[in-house]
Amino acid sequence: xxxxxxxxxxxxxxxxxxxxxxxxxxxxxxxxxxxxxxxxxxxxxxxxxxxxxxxxxxxxxxxxxxxxxxxxxxxxxxxxxxxxxxxxxxxxxxxxxxxxxxxxxxxxxxxxxxxxxxxxxxxxxxxxxxxxxxxxxxxxxxxxxxxxxxxxxxxx
Amino acid sequence: xxxxxxxxxxxxxxxxxxxxxxxxxxxxxxxxxxxxxxxxxxxxxxxxxxxxxxxxxxxxxxxxxxxxxxxxxxxxxxxxxxxxxxxxxxxxxxxxxxxxxxxxxxxxxxxxxxxxxxxxxxxxxxxxxxxxxxxxxxxxxxxxxxxxxxxxxxxxxxxxxxxxxxxxxxxxxxxxxxxxxxxxxxxxxxxxxxxxxxxxxxxxxxxxxxxxxxxxxxxxxxxxxxxxxxxxxxxxxxxxxxxxxxxxxxxxxxxxxxxxxxxxxxxxxxxxxxxxxxxxxxxxxxxxxxxxxxxxxxxxxxxxxxxxxxxxxxxxxxxxxxxxxxxxxxxxxxxxxxxxxxxxxxxxxxxxxxxxxxxxxxxxxxxxxxxxxxxxxxxxxxxxxxxxxxxxxxxxxxxxxxxxxxxxxxxxxxxxxxxxxxxxxxxxxxxxxxxxxxxxxxxxxxxxxxxxxxxxxxxxxxxxxxxxxxxxxxxxxxxxxxxxxxxxxxxxxxxxxxxxxxxxxxxxxxxxxxxxxxxxxxxxxxxxxxxxxxxxxxxxxxxxxxxxxxxxxxxxxxxxxxxxxxxxxxxxxxxxxxxxxxxxxxxxxxxxxxxxxxxxxxxxxxxxxxxxxxxxxxxxxxxxxxxxxxxxxxxxxxxxxxxxxxxxxxxxxxxxxxxxxxxxxxxxxxxxxxxxxxxxxxxxxxxxxxxxxxxxxxxxxxxxxxxxxxxxxxxxxxxxxxxxxxxxxxxxxxxxxxxxxxxxxxxxxxxxxxxxxxxx
Lengths: 156, 760
What we know:
Chain A has 156 residues and is an all-alpha fold. Chain A has eight helices and no strands. Chain B is mainly alpha-helical. Helices cover 54% and strands 3% of the residues of chain B. Chain B contains 38 helices and six strands. In chain B, the strands form three sheets. A two-stranded antiparallel ribbon of chain B has the order 1-2. In chain B, strands 3-4 form a two-stranded antiparallel ribbon. Chain B has a two-stranded antiparallel sheet with strand order 5-6. In chain B, helix 3 (46-53) packs across helix 11 (178-193), helix 9 packs antiparallel against helix 11 (178-193) and helix 14 (260-278) runs antiparallel to helix 27 (558-574). The model of chain B is unreliable at 43-243, 246-252, 429-433 and 648-660 (pLDDT under 50). Chains A and B meet through helix 1, helix 2, helix 3, helix 4 and helix 5 of A and helix 1, helix 2, helix 4, helix 7 and helix 8 of B.
């Protein structure tokens, strides 16, 4: 769950490995009192977040979100209760509802890491069209996920 | 990186789902790194660690990697402990810790991230000390923690990624359940350590929180900042306020609701007694015409209608006038506007929006009716979050960003306490205050946890993505999610579970109330809200609260004022918590018809410090009407800058005989002197400080723990509703320059600016 959280923050896989390890080392160096599993998970995320910010600043990389609480709330909504497994299942369902062409575009983008031009060539569309296709597909996924996650939320 | 957190999360999940970037198994890697670190530290118990958590042969450890040679800040050195870099960097960090110690000791109580890194070296030493002292127990913690990781699924139990669907299925199987994983790991730790006697992993609940205390002369040394500043709260005892203790001491039959005239008489008697004790002569009563104007101004915000000014010419029955004014709807509307204005101050909420107008109508109805005023907090904080409801508007203005602003406003307006201080450190009562007048950081954060799950989405004034409030407490309640993490001044972190301010833990058992609803009910029933209401209404009518919420800054007549506040709060409660009657009592008291202190330009030029201080004390004890003029914080600071900029000129002019030149008429002399005189409130309050202010500001200005910016923040946070931003900090810097670098004088000017712009 921590690794996924770090990835969602923007850490590359290798960096997420490092930071997850560093987080647990920090905890081992400074043991915490266990109130509940959720409290421990929150604490781990906080430490991981701080380490990530520290690393980004040190590397003079892009700025990272300063709104840890806001990000944490979004994370809890997506993945707070089962390490994100349910959210991945929901995402899979949403993904299956996309058009074949949209699925293809996202697969080329994420599974094969092709550039936008390469995706355009593969789908025989313009580069701008590929960008729009991916953006629309992600928008549909987000909308679908929001809807599905909302059904899990407590109604007002 | 995407703008919205959900976009970031979607991106990461897509990469995991489509590119197979699944969570790796890091257990072994953490074990290896932990052992390497202990080996470097020369920990004598490392063998035990190896036994317990199966440390592999050290020869298999990854080799050290040299630093890149570039300069790094302390926090970088401290926190960059990845598997590739940690050996070299830890050594480098330890070597530089001693050099960096002064800066590391600097405490930043407003910027958590920065402070964490600045003094982390100290924490590191403490942890190291703790590691040696508690090594055996730590071994247990380590093993149990790794067990917990398995239990919670932080690490995948299999290095080979499972398909999502399979993983989900596996998670539901009993043999892969969390408890099984945790039990297996604990069992492993127990087995390898040779039995339960040497297996502290089992005693996870007893894992020590390292709290090294610095002993000086056999006496425990408290956190330096707290001792140094001793920021005291005015009667902030949550478990038992002075009034509650008094209630305990007196049988209930002693407390009886008094008629209005008797309450007003009691107020007058207590005020006059205080003035006599302090040797203060109250200013003369204002005339009838001024009184009518003041009633109009204070109760209606209008100098004209609905009260006819002509009555002033033939004399008025002041009590009847006040009573008549309070019965009009305009009073309820005006008070509702003032209350909402203070609740939502500096939040960006449009006060003319339909939502706020609906809220105002609802609050005015509550004021107009005879229903107990305290129930308003149940509507505001605990009410249904439906469109247009009071709670939607209230929480829409204050929730978000961790809800700290929401909590601090609840503290100021409904609990009569400044919580901005205890966000970062415990408050400590001054010697002359009741030791129980202390609020801890833990109270702040455990109460904040009661607000978890409340937040906002969207943006204010954005038609496409309008701002809306959400409440996920019901969902969080299903999995015990109510807790908060916070940092102590020494950078250790703590986690607390949700509790009411009196320390009662929130549980779902036997109650259908969610935490925010429980908190709203608790506040409504609390006598602290009575104190807050009295203080607030007093402030609206007389320009400053009866008792300041941070009392260390202003102590003149404080015991008497606290006694008066307690008496008024008691009568307010016994009389059905009618805010209308409360207003009437204050408006009919001798404090309401005092005139302002008069101070002409000429008098100011000739006044000595004692005279100025006397004028100030008169105002602080309500023996004179407030001279405060309504200003924004930046305007107030700018005025101070402008006035201090003329310092040299003034000195030069004061040395000239011109103002007292006998060749000039008194009117001309007054005009010249007036040009040299600042506004009346500045002349009285910023020119002369009380002894408590001097003590507080001197302590703040000479603190070695705080830099200038932090000192400024301490003054600004005396009013949590004020916005502390870079522009205000810049103005404070300019003011410091105008005061020739004199911090104490600058902080006094800032204190005046804060009080002038936000009385409460």
